[in-house]
From TrEMBL:
PANTHER family in the cross-refs: OS03G0233200 PROTEIN
Protein's gene: LOC117649231
InterPro entries referenced in this protein's UniProt entry, alphabetically: Osmotin/thaumatin-like_sf (IPR037176), Thaumatin (IPR001938), Thaumatin_CS (IPR017949)
Organism domain of life: Eukaryota
PROSITE patterns, A to Z: THAUMATIN_1, THAUMATIN_2
Sequence similarity: Belongs to the thaumatin family.
Keyword Lyase carried by entry: no
Cysteines paired by S-S bonds: 30-233, 74-84, 89-94, 141-223, 146-206, 154-169, 173-182, 183-193
Signal peptide: 1-18
Keywords, alphabetical: Disulfide bond, Signal
Pfam families: Thaumatin
Protein name stated in the entry: Pathogenesis-related protein 5-like
Length: 234
């Protein structure tokens, strides 16, 4: 995640109000197994397995902050040790965040004004389509998603291959680490870090998703007292 995006989420998180438990329902609509991962803002991680059409529900405190993602192409032994082609987090149960590029579902619950803040982020890249749908909340509560397969339009220099298949698409920042793409150094504010040719590909394909560090206005959404569905391959 780009630095400015992380700072924004942490600022929201530090002004917390909520306390009631929130239910996250994970749904796998892909035609293949997905291994969801979760990382909290405090650094603890968990991971699971979801076969096609399976669902699972996770409960978290109303002040929780963190992210979910879907791992693909995983192979684990009976002890849960192994690797994934995308989103790897060091074992079935995860011992850290997912290795980018991955599509992220990011949440800060009970933030400023009692609102939950959430987004779908492609700041570090994309691996599979993802959708966030709030349920039973109040306020704007918009559905946000990246439903399209960004891998199909990924520039050659950003493609991640597994055998003969493109399994993920890097962001320009992840691929090259240059300040004009990462919004760092002399490019550390919106005026000096406009969208790039590469971030526009993400934005054109998935208009609601974060495409680069200063994409806040069209990519962060709010809801209050909601539960959330996170769907892989909606």
């Amino acid at each position: 995640m780009a630095v400015s995006h992380l700072v924004l989420l942490l600022m929201i998180w530090t002004q917390s109000y909520g306390s009631e438990a929130v239910q996250f329902r994970l749904l796998n609509k892909c035609g293949f197994t997905v291994w969801p991962g979760m990382l909290t803002s405090g650094g603890s991680a968990e991971g699971w397995k979801l076969k096609p059409q399976e669902t699972m529900t996770i409960s978290r405190d109303g002040n929780w902050s963190g992210r979910f993602w879907g791992r693909t192409g995983c192979k684990f032994n009976g002890s849960g040790e192994g690797r994934c082609a995308t989103g790897d987090c060091n074992g079935l149960n995860c011992r850290g965040g997912g290795v980018p590029p991955v599509t992220l579902a990011e949440f800060t619950l009970g933030g400023y004004g009692g609102n939950d803040f959430y987004d779908v982020s492609l700041v570090d890249g994309f691996n599979i389509p993802l959708k966030i749908r709030p349920k039973d909340g109040s306020g704007s509560c918009r559905v946000t998603s990246c439903k399209s397969n960004v891998n199909a339009v990924c520039p050659n220099d950003l493609k991640v291959w597994n055998g003969n298949s493109v399994v993920a698409c890097k962001s320009a920042c992840l691929a090259w680490g240059e300040s004009q793409y990462c919004c760092t150094g002399a490019h550390n504010k919106p005026a000096t870090c406009p969208p790039s040719t590469f971030s526009r590909i993400f934005k054109d394909t998935c208009p609601d998703a974060y495409s680069y560090a200063y994409d806040d206005l069209t990519s962060t959404f709010t809801c209050s007292s909601a539960n959330y569905d996170i769907t892989f391959c909606p």
